């Protein structure tokens, strides 16, 4: 017996009860009766149930048929109740026809838009290079733009009606278009028909013509309306220009008063029925709105397109074809299904073309930025929830166009086989300024009051999250669950499946956290494994198959590969829990042609299976895929594995390699294929010889000799292929969005670069890997490979790299990482070969410069390479030939010739010799200060050397913090000591153990770099160098007084104040890590007053920012707040390494500073005996002010105070000052007598009415 449902029943219980009821055939307990609508005179009535029909009342009238005769053929019946619907006699037949019209113009004519957003949308503007361009904005729902977009939808009238609709025209056929006629003589046939019609009309009388017209109207369904349209078409052809507002006489059909609602005529409302005027050229001073066709292409505003294409509508500019971004947004919210899908497909095409950079030269602004700011992300997410499969498919395609770059994916697949190609950077956006400000604000809070990253993320709304990170914003909206539903329940077409798999792959590339979310989404990966990676399938009967369900897909395997790259734990889950191991065995065993798939698809599936297996093997997983034998309770022990099992592998590999090397001299196509295949063979041979050292001597004569014999012709490495030497920089493209980072690899196959098919980069890298393996095993073979290291292309390439300054970004990091590896291999080979080959030793200085330039370029994940360079090449005396070839002595002689009167420069040579002796100690000092990077070094070393048990992830660290080493790493010991000691109140004895020695070693290394490797510090600005060296004075109270420290600081100060260096010292730029240089200068002033004891070195350090060219704020601080420092700032003119003119020229223009100069002179705070330099500077500026042509009211007070008794000496110095002279005892020259012009100027100043009230306070 059936029971009533209970509140505790689940959905499954209800479905079971319903199935039992239907099987039992029991009658219904209730019936649904639809009562007729009395207001409409009847209607449907019926009951539902398993029984018979419900009776209804029917009103019949005699001599009146039950059904109204129809003027059109009845449509096919789709339901039983449709024939009972009420029909009225005044039902418009035109509406019936239009309702079933599916043409593009008919679809676009029924636009009904739902208001959903009022955000402002920046309208892109079409630029012309010859005119000015101004951008302007529209509201997304502008009041001036109607919410309903109409367009001309009526097809041209038939030819017969065109001829009968009016009198003949003297020129050719106006209404006869010839549509439907084929063949090359279409126009001639159209003219012949037109002439026959004219001849027939000439033989007919006026009455016959009207009678034929009446017969035609009786035969037509639309009657007079079609005639009016013909007349309208003829009128529009005669007047293509814009017409004035129509009147009643101008209407194509004269209205009759007896027509319904024609009591009050409104001719303007019929204006839209006219033909659109042709586009007119507008003024070029204002930018024009960008419009696109349905293929996503940009339409010129002057292009005249026919209306039947569906690109015209009645907006503010109805004569212009195409849709703007604003109108596509409105169209995407239409209630008509075709309009929604059409707008989404158009947006997808626009995004695809924008990513390819096709709009960069024509539009001002970024298409993707404009769309994202207008809310495209949420619009597509809402459209993906549509219950119509067509709209859902269009939304999926648009999301793929937004997130996925096919060029980026192709580049990553191409570089997968390169050394280190398994690893990849996460596609995470860089931190914005707002996030950095939030972190700075939280630094002052206690640890327990700071919010965790997860709490911060939860507090932000979806809009803010999506604005900073598009992928994270989509994940917040439940995108993964919706994609699982579409794949599992909707089962869409093959293209939609490929789009969704590509979107999942791009989400997995975002970060390890996003990849974990994909794995954790309920039933998502189960659907992917069961539907798109089955263990068995049958060959599809059609190509391409109508459905990809039940067939293996390369996109699904690629998704698994990217997920496995995120970490060894994720890879283990795929292999164990999701059955990937069985799928690999199934896909790797047969040849691609035996997979029962289309040949191209089978090859892609096989390639992706091997790539997935390579990623799993890099963790030490899936290595036993083919090892287990038949299950036996007591199997015999397996035979021991030895290298004899692979001994026969060498011969075929070497033979194939010889053939490919010979193909390098062939035509271009064969050369490119050889360049693509040789690296793989070299990698395989490198691994083989690494494990079998006895076979190494037999390698070079057979295969590698051609590559090394003529490397200049076989290994050209032009600068255009280098990302490091690229002058323009491999930066983000024109459509780069900070919240959606990518590789910006559009057109990477066509333009110059590392990855183009003709680039020798993969071959050169693979060869260096093989040679590195060989030289590491057999030291005697090192000298035989020197030809590569001294070849002209390689030497020229390395010289260009030393002068380059590559820009680091998310777009350039992918290519730079591979090129950094190549540079590291070349330097490593040179380090092994240089001691044994004089030819390489002659270029040791160049390779050392490359190593020094490479250190601050290495990216996160390459810490092992940086550590190896520091341990081997950077501090190697062999790569500093200046240290043992008379370098210090030659420097001393050069400096003596240039500066014979500067004895302090003689100390540079001994300091350099001492630094060269201490190179091992310098290396230990820096390795000790970089000890905090040890975990990163060990992790990158395990990944680089292939120590699979310890490799955690193939996803590299984030790029946010920057390179592995900072650009100013040589200053690291100084900065570290300053951060540890704080305010500088400690003495040397109280400093941490080894601090003095560390500071000495750091200053020695800096001196060596400044003299012999100036290019190694070119990334550090002069103001940053000055700020880092200032840490010596701020770290301790007497550290700068230590003898070795003071000697090295004097030498560095002389080098920093050379004329060419001094001109580039800009103190207006804030040093890295400081708000401004003035803050640092204030701290130095306080420290000088406290602990300097008049030290001349510290005094020169303070005088350096007081030059005339720098801001007066620092001079105001010295003569105002810290005037006491003038009593001990006794730097003599001989000790100053700068010309005195840098302090005295041009004359000072700051009146407050001049007043402080004069006050310090009058009060005795600034004396010539205590502070000779600033005394001379103050005299020079005040003298120039007194005898300048400035206002007398400003000069008079100063001149009046000079006459005060007791200031005899000051008066003589100030009035008789002639000019600075550094070799003079006073530091300046004086006049014997005041010149006449100056005397007159002084008398005029003293003769002013306000002279009695002089004085400066």
Automatic annotation (TrEMBL):
Domain RPAP1 C-terminal: 289-354
Family to which the UniProt record says this protein belongs: Belongs to the RPAP1 family.
Organism: Gadus morhua
Protein known as: RNA polymerase II associated protein 1
SUPFAM superfamilies recorded: ARM repeat (SSF48371)
Domain RPAP1/MINIYO-like TPR repeats: 970-1191
Ranges of Acidic residues composition bias in the record: 433-444
Bias kind Basic and acidic residues: ranges: 80-95, 452-463
Gene Ontology process terms (BP): transcription by RNA polymerase II
Transmembrane domains' residue ranges: 107-131
Every RPAP1 N-terminal domain range: 192-220
Biased segments, Gly residues type: 43-53
Main location: nucleus
Entry coiled-coil feature ranges: none
